[in-house]
What we know:
The model is unreliable at 18-37 (pLDDT under 50). The protein is mostly helical and 134 residues long. α2 (40-48) runs antiparallel to α3. The protein folds into two domains: 2-69, no CATH class; 79-134. The radius of gyration is 36 Å and the shape is rod-shaped. The protein contains four helices and no strands. The protein has helices at 2-20, 40-48, 53-69, 75-133.
Amino acid sequence: MRAAYERLLFVFTAGVKLALTAAPAGASLPGSDPEHRSLRPIQTYAKESGVPENQAEAIAEAFRAAQVEADPVTRTDLAAHDTDLRHALQETEQRLKAQIDLLRSDLTGKFTLLQWMLGLLLAGVASIVIRSFF
């Protein structure tokens, strides 16, 4: 049982490596040709590792279908998302700075009020102390 699992894992890993290999520019879609050469090694690896032929063909067909249905990301897509993310980050930064400035001005006003209150309190205590001694 463990040996069969290890063989299947080997076949899957080999298939993923082949599926992730970049095709040259101008190449047709991997699944458009039923005899696509990159899928032959998947079948070969599967057969060599002891997987029955019908399962090897099913694995190769699954990878073929996955490659056809794949929606690859292009550099243009990444650049567009990068621009969108940078713009959103700048907007968030501006909003955060505005909120910080608002809180800073609010706290500055409150500290000014506390300073005046403390000054008046000290003046009152000083007047009481002076009146009691003189």
